[in-house]
Amino acid sequence: MKYRKLVVLLISILLVSVLSGYCVPYNDCTSKFDITARRLARKKQPEKKTIEWNTEWTYASFSEIHDDSVVLYYSKAQDRKDIVVCVNAGHGTPGGNSVKTQCHPDGSLKVTGGSTAKGSKYAAAVSSGMTFLDGTPESEVNLSLALILKEKLLEDGYDVLMIRETDNCQIDNVARTVYANENADCHIAIHYDSSSNDKGFFYISVPNVDSYRSMEPVVSHWQEHMDFGEAILSGVIEEDVKIYGDGDMAIDLTQTSYSTVPSVDVEVGDQASDISEAAQEKVAEGIAEGIDQYFQAS
Ligand SMILES: [Zn+2]
Questions:
Q1: CA distance linking residue 141 with residue 92, whole number of Å
Q2: What's the CA-to-centroid distance between 238 and ligand 1, angstroms?
């Protein structure tokens, strides 16, 4: 009889151990459950989400072209950061050059030159972009770099909001900025400059003009734009990419004039730059490194 009780007791102990999943010690068990929960969350997480234009968004009424939607891609990386980077491949809006949008939300005039003259109230909704010496349109080269950057950021754990992935994106510069403001944690626009002396990489910094830096939303965000630009520049320098001068040029841009998240336009090179996949890989690596630096510091 005693022997039978002992067997029942042993079987009960065995059953309890099995049912509790060998949860000894307790900490091991918690981390296993955490990992499982995270895996399940990743599985449930959709690969991407389409985001439609919303006329209620701040500054939405300043946009003239916003027929297309944008796509938010979710990272499948183990250490997903829950940070959304808006990648905006410059140009690629046929017809955008003949439509005008206001340079500043308060109607004030542009404080520097650039592709639109100083003193202008209106600028092209999206300009056509330049052509490389080998005949390739800038919009195409901007897009190929944007697609490389997208994959790198997704691997690094960032979610990526892609403004365009085709050569016909009916979203103007104001709308691109508004999409980023409302759906991303930062905004990076990719361009190459129109010079032809292979001048190197630089970012567009915020002009040091009182009236400009005191206008909303610039007054509340210009420092973030500058810090973001500097972080990206230092990432690109680490990758040994050729840099133009000090690595920045101050221009009054539509993008900066409407941005409410850290926002920068990078000019990766110019008409004479190496635009091979290897060269773009290096630049994308540097930009991704800079984005890491920015979010680690902030
Ligand atoms: Zn451009």
A1: 10
A2: 24
- Residues in the chain, how many? 298
| pLDDT band at residue 24 under the 50/70/90 scheme | very low
- Quote the ligand 1 centre to 90 CA distance (angstroms): 6
Q: Three-class SS of residue 204?
A: strand
Ligand 1 centre from 252 Cα, in Å?
14
Number of H helices, E strands in the chain: 8, 10
pLDDT tens, position by position, 257-273: 999 999 999 999 999 99
What the chain holds in terms of domains, given with CATH numbers, is: 47-297 (3.40.630.40)
The CA distance from 256 to 265, in Å, is 8
**Residues in Cβ contact with 121 at an 8 Å cutoff, skipping those fewer than 6 apart:** 102, 103, 107, 109, 110
Rounded alpha-carbon distances, angstroms, from residue 206 to 115, 185, 190, 195, 238: 15, 19, 16, 21, 23
Q: Do the bridges between strand 201-205 and strand 84-89 make them parallel or antiparallel, or are there none, so unpaired?
A: unpaired
Are residues 243 and 201 in contact, defined by beta-carbon separation less than 8 angstroms? yes
pLDDT at 243 over 60: yes
- Cα 23 to middle of ligand 1, angstroms: 58
Nearest to 252 by CA among 88, 103, 90: 103
Taking the complete model, does pTM exceed 0.90, yes or no?
no
